[in-house]
């Protein structure tokens, strides 16, 4: 019931230089659980923003009245990565030793926000559901931890895909749950759901 809402929420997106450089924003109005209405959209060209500083932007909504006030900071991406199995970030014994020292008990209170990080090796899937008429699927895998989201490449026409990728996430809350979802890529249409697993960090 507000025409001037204040959300004051922060979202972290992993911006890689080889991805598209536009941040798309949509504002929606909810009447009830079933009815939603689009109130406007706007875009931010990430490449045009100065790095290593907080940019205060007032963004007018396209074709609709109103504007959004946002703070956007573009900083070097730390603590998150996607790599192949052969160059796994924790494969080096020297690096593992540094990590053990960094998170040992005597250093627990050195940086309270540095809870740790999670490394996930996504190897393969077996006997997936066939989503195409030809009896195949085009599966890819999405990993979500808190507001962080990373995904694998798509393996086309395969019910037993092998991704062999290593994903590294910074952990902000030890009570978070890692959600791994498999989708079937469907061209310009929304992807089809093939399955999901949820893993609480405290169970690892």
TrEMBL record:
GO annotations of cellular component type: synaptic vesicle membrane
Give the location in the cell: Membrane
Q: How does it sit in the membrane?
A: Multi-pass membrane protein
Q: Does the keyword Nucleotidyltransferase apply?
A: no
**Which PROSITE patterns does the annotation name?**
C2 (PS50004)
Alphabetical UniProt keywords:
Calcium, Membrane, Metal-binding, Repeat, Transmembrane, Transmembrane helix
Q: Which domain of life is it from?
A: Eukaryota
A GO MF label: calcium ion binding
Identify its protein family. Answer: Belongs to the MCTP family.
In its UniProt entry, what is this protein called?
Answer: MCTP2 protein
Organism expressing this protein natively: Calonectris borealis (Cory's shearwater)
Gene name as annotated:
Mctp2
């Amino acid at each position: 019931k507000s025409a001037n809402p204040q959300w004051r929420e922060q979202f972290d997106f992993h911006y890689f230089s080889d991805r598209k450089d536009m941040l798309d924003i949509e504002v929606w109005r909810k009447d009830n659980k079933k009815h939603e209405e689009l109130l406007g959209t706007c875009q931010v060209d990430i490449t045009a923003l100065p790095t290593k500083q907080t940019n205060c932007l007032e963004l007018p909504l396209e074709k609709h009245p109103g504007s959004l006030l946002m703070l956007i900071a573009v900083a070097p991406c730390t603590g998150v990565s996607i790599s192949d199995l052969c160059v796994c970030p924790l494969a080096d014994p020297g690096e593992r030793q540094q990590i053990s020292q960094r998170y040992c008990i005597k250093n627990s209170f050195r940086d309270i926000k540095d809870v740790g990080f999670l490394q996930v090796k996504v190897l393969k899937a077996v006997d997936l559901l066939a989503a195409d008429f030809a009896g195949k699927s085009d599966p890819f895998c999405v990993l979500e931890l808190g507001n962080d989201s990373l995904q694998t490449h798509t393996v086309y026409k395969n019910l037993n895909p092998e991704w062999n990728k290593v994903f590294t996430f910074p952990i902000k809350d030890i009570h978070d749950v890692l959600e791994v979802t498999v989708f079937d890529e469907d061209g310009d249409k929304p992807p089809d759901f093939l399955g999901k697993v949820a893993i609480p960090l405290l169970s690892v």
